[in-house]
Each structure stands twice: as C-alpha cells, then as structure tokens.
Design goal:
Distance between the termini: 38 Å
Number of helices: 7
Number of strands: 17
CATH architecture of the domain at 8-98: 2-Layer Sandwich
Structural class: alpha+beta
Shape: globular
Mean pLDDT: 94
CATH topology of the domain at 8-98: Phosphorylase Kinase, domain 1
Radius of gyration: 19 Å
C-alpha cells in the first residue's frame, strides 16, 4: 500500500518500510515467500502476529541491548481511515539507525544450510564440529555464524575471522557477544514453552552512536522454532513457520520461479495456526519473566 503522507522507502518480501521523519514505519504484511518467490496467496493475520512477537522480544531483551522500537500506537500518525485500518497492529514505529550490513546468525542445533555444510565439510561456518552429528542434533555450544547482507540476493556466509577482517575485531566481538547473549535468553524462555529455538538471526545498527538491535527479532520468519517433543536426531522436527507451505510446494511440478502457485485454503489455515501457536506459547512463557 502507498501511504499518502509517508514515502515508501523499501518493499521486502514480507515488510514495507516507510519514512516517517525521524522514525520509520515497519509494516509486516501478510505476504509469504518460499524459495525466494513471493507467493500470490496472502496468509491473513500473519503480519500482525509477526509484529506483535517482535514487540514482545524487543521489550523482553532491552536489558541485554537497546533497540529501535519506539512503539506501535499509530493514532498520532497522519493517515487516512483506510491506511490506519491496514497499519493497525502490524506496524512498528522505530528509530532510524545506521545499519551494520551483517546478518548475525546464531545456531544452537544442526539444521538448514549449517547441516548441509557439516555433511559436506565437517564444519560449521568454516570451523570444525565433532564427527558423528546428525540432523537436528544440539551443538556442543551455540555458534555465531555471520553473513554479509545482500539485499539483491543470497547473503554470503563468512567465518568469524573473515568478519573481523571486514568490520574490525572489536565490533565483530561485540556483535558475537550480544547475539549469543540474546540467543541464550530467548532459548531459555522458549524452552519453558516446550519450544526449541534451533537458530535465529539478528540485525544491529547504531542509534545516536549506540549499538542497538533493529529490524525484526525472534519471529518465525527470522528463526527456526521446533516443537521440543518432536525432536528425533536424524529427522526434521516439526517447525513453527512456513515449512507446511514448503512441504506442499515440494509436491508440485513447480520450477520455483515467479509466479508461484496459489496456496489452498487448508494449507493457509494450517500455516497461520502454527504462527499463532508459537506466538501464544512464547508470550505466555514471557509472562513468567521477573520484572
């Protein structure tokens, strides 16, 4: 949607970002992408759940690192009634930041591209892992596996040593330390909900010279959440994300290029139910966090 009084700065696969002066409007749409293709069928309500879960985690992790969240109240914005109706509950008002172009990935379990690298090389982000690990095994300790952001294509995985060469040792160490600390906190809270945080990615930037957490955080779109009771080493666990859609797409004769196929109603319903369940369970566990 084009807003009357706020220019569209960037349209991603899921989120639209608007310029609101000293702040940004980060709007999570109901768009869903798979295999780098935005699918034609929206998942109604997904954007609101993503926004509210990010807000939950931004508030819960402020004791670890500052972040860019200002709030979610759009009533003070200059919007038409139709614009306000669309933006409500799916918008974060956020401070502008000087983004650090690094995806700060933390992996606690062997999955995804990390598992593929391990099978081929016996390493994770270029560093050795013990022999004999299987898919979905817990790593000996969480690993920081950064990537260089690429807005036009796939991010480029780099080693920690290479990251230090690119951005300097001090900043590389700080990004790793903060990422691991946030992951440890979120992983512990998730465990209370019977959920495993297998891996996740963070973005950071500078706001008034202070390192701050930005973008979205710890959502099912930026993280791999598993049902703890479903984990069997060597098998893919049940996940709380769009894996249901990916699995369905794999049954089709589709070449994974635009345009994608329309998603059946039952697949949409199953997908939003998984997003809603992880939101409900995580936020319920968060209520137990001491003030």
């Amino acid at each position: 949607m084009n807003l009357t009084n706020y220019p569209l700065l960037r349209q991603g696969k899921v989120r639209d970002i608007y310029d609101a002066g000293e702040n940004l409007l980060l709007v999570a749409t109901d768009r869903l992408s798979a295999f780098d293709v935005i699918l034609p069928t929206p998942v109604d309500g997904k954007g609101k759940l993503l926004t509210q879960l990010s807000v939950f985690w931004f508030e819960a992790t402020r004791h670890i690192v500052p972040n860019h969240l200002v709030g979610t109240d759009i009533d003070g914005l200059d919007l038409t009634p139709a614009e306000a109706d669309w933006l409500r509950d799916r918008t974060m008002i956020a401070r502008k930041a000087d983004r650090i172009d690094i995806e700060c990935v933390v992996r606690g379990y062997l999955a995804g591209s990390g598992y593929k690298e391990y099978v081929q090389e016996g390493t994770l982000a270029g560093e050795p892992l013990p022999a004999g690990l299987q898919r979905a095994d817990r790593l000996p300790e969480p690993r920081f596996t950064p990537a260089i952001k690429n807005d036009e294509g796939h991010d480029e995985n780099v080693s920690r040593a290479r990251l230090a060469e690119i951005i300097g040792t001090e900043l590389a160490d700080e990004l790793e330390s903060k990422s691991l600390e946030i992951y440890a906190f979120a992983s512990s809270l998730s465990a209370q909900a019977g959920i495993v945080l297998a891996d996740t990615k963070f973005e950071f930037g500078y706001i008034d010279g202070q390192l701050s957490l930005i973008d979205e955080v710890l959502t099912p779109d930026s993280s791999r959440y598993w049902e703890a009771a479903s984990i069997v080493p060597g098998q893919e666990p049940d996940s709380f994300d769009k894996q249901i859609v990916r699995n369905w797409l794999e049954t089709l004769d589709w070449d994974k290029t635009y345009p994608g196929p329309e998603i059946p109603d039952e697949i949409v319903a199953q997908t939003i139910a998984r997003y809603r369940e992880v939101f409900d369970r995580l936020t319920a566990a968060g209520k137990e966090i001491p003030e």
